[in-house]
Design a protein that fits this description.
Largest sheet: 4 strands, antiparallel
Radius of gyration: 21 Å
Order of helices and strands: HEEHEEEHEHHH
Strand order of the largest sheet: 3-4-5-6
Number of domains: 2
Number of strands: 6
Strand content: 15-25%
Structural class: alpha+beta
Helix content: 40-55%
Number of helices: 6
């Protein structure tokens, strides 16, 4: 559990509760940030790919924010109890996946066009980058499993099989975009 008093220790001030304005401590407490993209404006959304601190799970967190206490949940917090409620909600809103492959499948197969985020240019940047990162991680994991299998079965001695697997890995990695490109169609 994440405790509000621990990640925002200086909210109790001389003149009352000093509401925090930065979501970064909450995000960092939920998991290790692999990729974070914020909309460019005075209000908008943030999309985050996380890795669980305890194991190799991957998490996806999406939340909106505003520019004042009337339109931003964090700035509207008037006590540590309010802040704890928001932290707990963001923890619950984080979707966790057991592997990079299962996260990749989610990002590839989810009906993004049906979500409001589809119209945000920054979301397309996030989606392209996150799928590239997860694809690279998935291919790396597959390669490691193949190497282990080949050693265990003695196939690593077979030059033809080894070369074919190396060629397949190289071809797959060549399909993965190195940099996400924004979708100009929005």
């Amino acid at each position: 559990m994440i405790f509000a008093e621990v990640i925002y220790p200086n909210c109790n001030g001389e003149y009352g509760f000093n509401e925090p304005y930065d979501y970064t401590p909450i995000i960092n407490a939920i998991g290790d940030v692999i990729l974070r993209i914020d909309e460019d404006g005075y209000q908008g959304d943030t999309w985050v790919l996380l890795r669980n601190k305890e194991d190799t799970k991957y998490g996806f967190l999406n939340f909106g924010w505003g520019s004042c206490s009337g339109c931003d949940a964090l700035q509207a917090c008037c006590s540590y109890a309010d802040l704890q409620e928001l932290i707990d909600q963001l923890e619950r809103d984080t979707v966790w996946f057991d592997s990079a492959a299962s996260a990749l499948i989610f990002f590839q197969q989810h009906d993004w066009e049906g979500d409001y985020c589809w119209y945000a240019r920054e979301f397309h940047t996030f989606l392209n980058k996150v799928t590239a990162l997860l694809a690279q991680e998935t291919v790396s994991k597959l390669s490691a499993h193949l190497s282990t299998f080949m050693r265990a079965t003695g196939l690593e001695q077979n030059v033809t099989v080894s070369k074919e697997i190396t060629d397949i890995e190289t071809a797959i990695m060549g399909l993965i975009p190195k940099e996400g490109k924004e979708n100009d169609s929005i």
